[in-house]
Design a protein that fits this description.
Structural class: mainly alpha
Number of helices: 16
Order of helices and strands: HEEHEHHHHHHHHEEHEEEHHHHEEH
CATH class: Mainly Alpha
Number of domains: 1
Strand order of the largest sheet: 1-2
Distance between the termini: 22 Å
Amino acid sequence: MKILKYTTLLWAISLLVSCTKYLEINPDNRVRLTTVEDYQAVITGAYPQAYHHFTELYTDNVRYYDYPSYNNANITSWLFPIYLWSDNYITNNAITPEAAWRKYYNDIYEANVVLEGIDQATGDDALRQSVKGEAYMIRAYCHFMLVNIFAKHYNPQTAATDLGIPYMLESEKEPGQHYSRDAIQYVYDRIEEDAFKALGLIREEFMAVPKYHWSRASIHAFLSRFYLFKEDWERSLYHSEEVFKLNNNIRNLFADFDAYFATGDYNGFANRYFETHQSNVLLVNYTLTWNTFERGSLYANEYRATFHANDVRGRIFTLWSAQTPNYMARKFRRNLPADGQSYADVGLFVVEEVMYNAAEASVRKDNPDFQYAIDKMNAILQQRWRPYVALNLADYPTQELLLEKIIDEKNRELCYEGYRWFDVKRHNIHIRHWDGTQYRELPPDDLRRAVQIPFAELEANPEMQPNPR
């Protein structure tokens, strides 16, 4: 697998360059990990960023606008093919399907290095077990994101034969190894195994800032999402409730809005949106700011207009000029780390997503509880609508209507964070995009909903089967 072959080299180089303070280098210049703390440092660096964030460009949350005096032509050229669901996008870019494939597998490689070597390392055994738990969970999460980007959505009737992605249970030992695609069912089974291993091993007392690491709450949040995608409603609901036992804090959007946004301190508001002090945040990482709709020709103008005037969430979009209405969601911090790139924080798991998962599961399970779903949505809306207007169960008498409302509210809460695409796939939502001259369609069951395996991977690996087109 060419991409995995790259990761071996990149991982070794990155350790030699950036981690010499804690790694012993032996005489033939190979990196040697000897202590549990060495492996802890490796796994801390293996946490995935929001590589999935490009999927927002596939959704109905964005539309192309030709603003010649404002758009960045380079960014437009990078993003526009993705926006049109094309397999032929510009590669060697940090926010593409190819980059997501490569980077998720890079993190999986590092997790496997930890799992294969940490038992021989010296150090505290309790810390060893917790680090192993983080490695199992990183491996589970990365494979979960890969299979849900590059394969069809899980279907209980066909998952045993539907093409998934390779599930890497060990690091690549020989350059140029070839890998074939495992079935979606096999991938899901391995994800489930790894996640439960992690749940039994994680020890939060070893984490200086738990919200940058897997915790019991964020693992249960992952399982809430995992079982929702797997259509196991009872288990999704169970793990949602386990999250609520540990953290049921809904973000008080009014407080930060009044302190920062209403006074014009838009950057202050964005900087605090996903800070770890926010009680609703369960796990946070970051994405490149190119992918937060800044001068990239893809804007939120239409979507912003759908918010009710009472909904504060609809007011966190900003207008850059009267001549060109360049609306963008003010959720994303801008900063410049040492590598010269600009990054934005993104919540990988928040309490509100789990509440919408629970609401959907409660409506779709064998003995549905519509009122439970209404109550979960109202709990969020109490801190989103001013003045607050409660949802009434009588207005949603059928499962179809209530599910539509849940998915709509979920998008209003999580828009531009990279999660809409997965609901578009799960619920077969029809999407159309304006290309500047006409609308392009992505109808239900379109084959492009399974993103194509990167061409570089297909060319290097004869056993890798492409997605049908």
